[in-house]
Design goal:
Structural class: alpha/beta
Number of domains: 2
Low-confidence stretches: 239-246
Number of helices: 19
Strand content: 15-25%
Strand order of the largest sheet: 3-2-1-4-5-7-6-8-9
Bound molecules: S-adenosylmethionine
Distance between the termini: 49 Å
Length: 484
Amino acid sequence: MRLAKPPTSCKVPTPRDLARAIVNALGDDSRAMWLEPSHGSGVFLRAISELGVPKSRIIAVDLDRTCSPSDRFAQTFRGLDFLRWAEKTNLRFDRIVGNPPFLSIKSLPISLRQKAENVLDINEQPIGRGANVWYAFVLASLRVLKKGGSLAFVLPSASEFANYSVAIRDAIGETFGSVELFRCARPLFEDVQEGTVVAVARGYQKPPCLVRKRRFKTKESLLVGLSTSGKLNGHKCRARTPQALGSTTTLGSIAKIRLGGVTGDAGYFLMNERRRQELALPEEALTPIVSKAKHLRSHSIDRQVWADLKAAGERIWLFSPSPELAKAGKTKEYVALTPEAGGCNKEAYKVSIRAPWYCTPLPSPADAFLSGMSQGGPWLCINEMRKLNATNTLYVVSFETRTRELWYMWALAMFSSIAQKQIRRIGRRYADGLVKYEPGQLGEVRLPRLRVDEDYRSLYARAIRAFTTGDARTARELADSLQL
Ligand SMILES: C[S@@+](CC[C@H](N)C(=O)[O-])C[C@H]1O[C@@H](n2cnc3c(N)ncnc32)[C@H](O)[C@@H]1O
């Protein structure tokens, strides 16, 4: 695929004095390999060269094919998408420095967008198009950074609080020996109003990490601050995982997870509303069900959501008459049909072993539904409709507690970092990209205890809204922020 040109809006060169101060803050050592992942007109290349680093130890990449006089300071590769390049190259670096593009992934031309949105986050999930290109650059840079290496980037001030950067901040404690964030109250670039942060991270994969945040009023004072980089005291990152593990409980100890009803002959037992009307079956002869992962659309399912599925022609009825109904009218006629005429295959194993054959056993109570087969990972859809159940393409969850608010709380806890880490390990991946989760293994997932007395119904609704639109981070942040 031919790559698009870089959008003009992202070509904002770094002021020379700032580039020099950042490069000096990282410093060289005699064998260090340097990388500038989007060198543009080469401000950083010049600064690295001024530090005495020979061209043989500097690699530079840029999408823009237009050469610049500073290209002579490095081995430069133009017309390349850094995000693609980082995935394929065998080169590894001791210093990575630059000013990555600030652009929303959504706004990229397709030839660039596909790669950017599929860059894997720290949690191994694609970052999605809600993130920004600079974030993809940071993640891709980590892939090519050597153990013990350092990285310094000019980032938008949003990097300190944007949702999509939380994962990277969370991971800091596990990935770098120290991180310094230099923030300036005034814009550092002449034509850019956005505040700027300079992030300097040292000692890749050599935790525990020290974090230092410093604020400056002017660019000049920030440059002075950078000259003392690496020499300040900071605070230690929170050690998150051990602290949190102390107060966890398994999903299996608070809820039962079972397969939905196994009909033995889905073609006969499952139907949509049109078919029910054609057969003139009374509603009492059927049980409302959900029968597909795509029927689980939001944090809960109620009568209205189910009615929408019904109106959309989905198979949401399970034929399950009482013995009395089965002896009368149209229900009796349907029960009596031969297989050739569209009746049930009574020799099917599951049908043959039950009495009466037309009563599919269903798990009860059905407090929530869960798809064991999904791309994004399993999540709970709380059942708010009386008598609604599910067939065996879905799992049915029955909670110990009858306090509904707590169902939402545990459902949210499944999005916590602790739970997600375990869930990722138990999924079995299939060639089509789907991942399967077994009920037994799901039951062993440890969930953190969350604070009581929160409005978990609306918090969970928010988490699922984010999750189902590709923003798993927001769901995770919500769950983590309520952890005890
Ligand atoms: C903000 S400018 C910074 C240029 C230079 N690093 C500096 O500081 O002056 C961003 C640069 O990213 C380049 N760029 C944009 N998307 C890219 C991509 N996917 N791969 C490599 N370079 C890219 C642009 O061509 C532009 O030169």
